[in-house]
Amino acid sequence: MRTAICAILFSVSSVLAAGVEISLDQAAREMMDRNPELAAARESVNAALARQRAAASPYFPQLSADAQYNRAGGDAILRSPGSDRFGLGLDVRQNLFEGFKTQAGVALQRARVDSAEAQYRRVVARLAAELKTVYIELLFAQDSLILAEKIASRRRNNLDLVQLRFEGGRENKGSYLRIKSAERESVVGVAQARRDVLVARTRLARTLARDLNDVLIATGTFSTLAPPDGPVLGDLARATPEFGLAEADRRAADAGFTSARGEFWPRVDATLAHRWTGTDWAPGTRGWNGGLSLSLPLFTGGASFQGVRAARAELQKADADALQAYHQSYVDLQAAWTAFQNARDNADLQKEILEAANTRALIAQGQYTSGLMSFEDWDLIENDLIQTHKQNLVALRNAVRAEAAWESAQGKGWSP
Asked: Could you tell me the CATH number of the domain that includes residue 199?
């Protein structure tokens, strides 16, 4: 079920008569394509993926080649000539065990990939909320202008009515001057609403990285999806980018702790070398050798112990940060959900109040025209109708704003 603005406006301002119409979805796609912050976040993800693949390189053999040339001088007294010696080599080394450092390195880079992806999601969610807010402000300014023109038209009709009654001796001068000032106020309201539209257009153009002079016209409506009934906030909190960032940091700290403890484990490598040597190029004497090597650090001046202590402290800090991020996300979601419910309920309530005000004003108009109602009572009802129209429009805008905040709290945005 969706809430939409009532069809109460009939005039179309010249400010809205010509321009580039743009929907919210079109604006979102444009922002996703042009926004430099979003492009930077996307490239950060690509860089993290490349580092993750690089971290797995110790799982594969390491191959290297070398070439050598040596010249030995002769003995002038013994008249022995010098000699040349050439060498070529091909070496293969495969790590067999490194104290789980390779696994920790891969896990660390995987955590950084998740961190980059969470950061990307956070940027998308923030930009989506900002765009929706700016877009809805333009839509609000446009409809406010149409409403202001509708009010001005109604005020002019009321002025004509009171002026006829005043000239016929059925209304006093004070009532005439009061309705005349109200008509003047409505004209000023139209001028102010026109300027508000221009400001809102400029803000949307800036958000979309467009020419600030572009004449943009929002084509959407004040509509919101009904807020979920009793959402599972715990699951939603764990799915937020903020918690994802904290959890990625915790996993990175865990990988760092594993790597630090790896300093106490031996390192085992297998090697195989094939060499060609000789006094001529290309050398023809061949030979090979292979073997296993094991190394174990016995004393590093306490650096290994202190490294483990530091890594353990960082892991404990990351655990605490992740818990804090979960709690904060939970609270933010609960607050955003509550605000969205309240704003949606208020929009529905204002719609009912507006319907009642319209009916009341229609009846009062007929009673005042026929002389069955005083000017004071009729003017009060007219003013109430106008204020109710404005409050209804504000309530609809606030509902969309609250929906944007609810989506942002969840980390939602448009897919690239």
From this structure: 1.20.1600.10
Claim: this prediction has a pTM higher than 0.70? yes
Structure tokens at 381: 């009802």
Answer yes or no: is pLDDT of 228 > 60: yes
Instruction: Return the half-sphere exposure (C-beta side, CA atoms, 13 A cut-off) of residue 48.
Output: 22
If you average pLDDT over residues 82-109, what whole number do you get? 85
C-beta separation of 408 from 125 below 8 A:
yes
What type of residue is 16? Answer: L
What span, in angstroms and rounded, lies between the C-alpha atoms of 226 and 203? 28
How many folded domains does the chain comprise?
A: 1
Tell me the pLDDT tens digit for each residue of 234-271.
999 999 999 999 999 999 999 998 888 888 888 888 88
Domain-located, residue 1: no
Please give the residue range of the domain that contains residue 210.
14-60+99-267+303-410
Q: Name residue 218's beta-bridge partners.
A: 22
Whether 289 maps to a domain, the answer reads no
- Long-range contacts, stretch 330-334, CB < 8 angstroms, 24+ apart: 330/233, 330/234, 330/237, 332/409, 333/231, 333/233, 333/236, 333/237, 333/240, 333/409, 333/410, 334/233
